[in-house]
Structures are given as structure tokens and as C-alpha cells.
Amino acid sequence: MDAIMIKESLDVMHIITLALLSIILLLFSAMASGSEVAFFSLTRGDMEELEGSGSASSQRVLDLLANPDRLLATILVTNNMVNICLVITVTQLVDAIFIFSGVWEFVFNTVIITFLLLLFGEIMPKVFSQTNPVKMARAISVPLKALRWLVYPLAFILIRTSSRVSRLATKNSEISIEELADAVDLTDAGSEEEQKMLSGIVSFGQTEVVEIMHSRVDITGLEFDASYDEVRKVIVETGYSRIPVYGEDLDDVRGVLYVKDLLKHIGEEDNFEWQKLLRKPYFVPEHMMIDDLLKQFQKKKIHIAIVVDEYGATQGLVSLEDILEEVVGEITDESDEEDRLYEKIGENTYIFDAKIHIGEFVEAIGFEEDAFSDVEGHAETLAGLMMELKRDLPRRGDELQSHGVKFFIATMDGRRVDKIKVEVNG
């Protein structure tokens, strides 16, 4: 019959030695388990408390956390070594006292000892450390500093091995911008504004200047030879704080006038040489990424840039506000007037500003985003779409049709299309 019996002759000193050693090892195991939770659950407030304390124990904690990889490796190496020694010692202690027959040896050594080790060496210390992380971290900072040097060779091997595995895992777990964008689109968390902001952040590094700039035809500039009265008139009418100044045309930008530089000269006569206040213009290529442009704006401490093509011809203008709007959405202030890009004049009839983006246009008429992708070519605005459809310069009165939509060129501003009437077949 299976049974557990106590040995008739016991080596008392041997048993006491093994018992004391088991208790010491259990305390070390509890210390290692608790220290992992204590150090790595410290909050920002706890760190500020330690930094402001000025005590030696607080400084030791901060020193250990200065190299978290080495600290964690020290704790893990110590904990595993102690647990191995503890299991061996306790097993010898049990064998020195009891005689087992049958499955009882397996039950006692495996189930009961493992349960006691987990309870007193793992669970209870971690629970205590979770509720008192600062107190626990200070208490065990002294033995941990000693152990950091004692187990350094093994900790070093663990750090190097884990860093290589981490690099491989990171390399294999890279996701594309498209996958990240799809993930953002699929999530239901947050408001519509938060969703748009997340989408803007994801696409931020993939957006070119040409996609957000104000096109050449929309630039308000000053002629270099303009009188001071003309300058003041343009400033009052537009409300802009920075205005490009050009020579013969916009391909000859000579500087940027900052309105704040004129404040102390506001009362000067008409012959005032305002040109001497111009600041050097900053030119950027049209295919520059906007995240790179933002860094340049921060570095040079400027808010506006002239966008040029590969031949140096002016294509548009981009500002810091345009970049920020890609993330946070439209930014308006008290000086901005509402810019209505379209008006619905009938059940299926609209008047659109020709400069409206194709994406905004199809959204306004309720079509799918890629509804005109097969005919839009490289066009980005509704006016560009008209040119692609006609394969020639549009003229007032032209009527075009595509995908069940009729387009009428309503008004022109010189050679530029101004307003387009749109009828959607119901």
C-alpha cells in the first residue's frame, strides 16, 4: 500500500541546515520576484518622489533604473538560479525526513513543493510589491546592486541574446503604411474627429507638398515696384500676415513681406521704401514630403515656403498652417472668411468652385471616392478633371459628360476656369 513514513534515524543537524538554507533561498526568491514588479511598476509620480527625496536608497533605485535591461537581466538570472537551488534543497530536505512509496514521492516533490514555491516565492511578493512599489524598491536596492555585479557575466549573455531576438522579431513584424491605415479605418474607437486625426497622422509621412499647397493661381502677391499705399491696401483686403513679393512675375519671387515688420512704419509716406524690410524667401521642391518640410520650418523658424518645380518655376505656396491642417483638420480664426467651394441649387444640381479637390467633389455629389479614377489622369482639382475630359483647354459654355454627370463651364477668370455647373442624373 502506498504510504509516507518518517525515517527512524534522522540527522538533525543536516535537516536543520537544509531547512535554514531553504528558508534563505525562499527569501531570495521572494526578493527577486518582488523586485521585478516593484521596479517596473513605478509611475511617473513615484519617479518624481524618488528624484525629490535625495536619500541614498532613492538614488540607488534611480541608478538601477538607469540601465533597465541590465536590471531586468540581473533579476531574471538571480530568480532562476535561486529557484533551481531551492527546489534541489527542499527535495533533499524532504528525502532526509520522509520515506515515500508509490506515487506519493511525485505528488509531494512536484505538486506540493511547486505550489508552496509559487505561493511564497512568486505570488505573495509580487502582490506586496504591486501595492508598495517605492517601499519595496528602496528596501531591495542594496542587495540588487551587489547582485548586479555578481551575476554580470550571465546577465550580459542574456542581454545580448534577447537583443538579437528582439531585432529579428521587430524586423519580421514591420507593417506597411497601407496596413496601418486600414487598421485605423477599421477601428470604431473615438469620435469622427479623432478618426480623421489618426488617419492624418498615419498618412503624414507619405504626403507631398504638392498635395497640400495653395496653387499658383491662388497666391496673393505684391509687385516689387508697388507703392506703399498699394501695399497697405493689399494687406487690409487680404488679412494675410506674410505676402510673397515678386519682380516680373511669380517665377521671380524676391522676398516675403512680414506684416509685423511694417507696424512701426505704419505712418510712413507713400514713397517709403518698404522693400528693405523683405525677408529672404525659402524655396522647396513640389515633391518634398511634408514631414521633412515641418522639420525645416522648425529648424529655420519660418512659417511659409514657395513651392517650385524642377525648372525653378513657382507652382504654389505652402505654410505651417497647411501642414498642421493635415493632422488636426481645418484651422480658422477670426480673420478667416468661410470659403464655400460649392452650392447646391437644385435637387441634383450644384455650382462648384473649379479649384475644389476631386475627392471633395465626389463626396459632395455622393459618389464613391474612385468614381472618376479612370478619367482623372493626374488631375487633382475639378478644373483639372475638365481638362482631362476635354483633352484641351476648357472654354466658357463648354458642356462635358462622364459617369452620368454633366459639367457646364459657367464662368472663367481670364483663361482660368472659375465656376462649374454640375448636374447629376438621378
Shape: elongated
Number of strands: 14
Mean pLDDT rating: 80
Helix content estimate: 40-55%
Sheet/helix structural class: alpha+beta
End-to-end separation in angstroms reads 91 Å
Give me the number of helical elements. Answer: 16
What are the low-pLDDT stretches, counting only 5+ consecutive residues below 50? Answer: none
Q: Output the helix-strand order.
A: EHHHHEHHHHHHHEEHEEEHEEHEEHHEEE
Walk across the major sheet and give the strand order. Answer: 10-11-14-13-12
Radius of gyration: 37 Å
Strand content: 15-25%
Biggest sheet, open or closed, and with what strands and sense?
5 strands, antiparallel
Domain module count? 4
Secondary structure: elements and pairs:
Layout: E1 4-6, H1 12-40, H2 44-53, H3 56-65, H4 68-97, E2 98-100, H5 104-131, H6 133-139, H7 141-150, H8 152-172, H9 177-186, H10 192-204, H11 209-212, E3 214-215, E4 222-223, H12 228-238, E5 242-246, E6 253-258, E7 283-285, H13 290-300, E8 304-308, E9 314-319, H14 320-328, E10 342-344, E11 349-353, H15 358-364, H16 382-390, E12 399-402, E13 405-413, E14 416-424
Parallel strand pairs: 4-5, 7-8
Antiparallel strand pairs: 1-2, 3-9, 5-6, 8-9, 10-11, 11-14, 12-13, 13-14
Primary descriptors:
CBS-domain, 16 helices, about 425 residues, five-stranded antiparallel beta sheet, four-stranded mixed beta sheet, alpha+beta
Protein model, in words:
With 426 residues, the chain is of the alpha+beta class. It folds into four domains: 4-171, no CATH class; 175-204, no CATH class; 209-328, CBS-domain (Roll); 342-424, Uridine Diphospho-n-acetylenolpyruvylglucosamine Reductase, domain 3, CATH 3.30.465. It is 51% helix and 15% strand. The protein has helices spanning 12-40, 44-53, 56-65, 68-97, 104-131, 133-139, 141-150, 152-172, 177-186, 192-204, 209-212, 228-238, 290-300, 320-328, 358-364, 382-390; strands spanning 4-6, 98-100, 214-215, 222-223, 242-246, 253-258, 283-285, 304-308, 314-319, 342-344, 349-353, 399-402, 405-413, 416-424. The strands form four sheets. A five-stranded antiparallel β-sheet has the order 10-11-14-13-12, covered by helices on one side. Strand 13 and strand 14 form a beta hairpin. Helix 2 packs across helix 3 (56-65) and helix 5 packs across helix 6. The radius of gyration is 37 Å and the shape is elongated. The N and C termini lie far apart (91 Å). The relative contact order is 0.07.
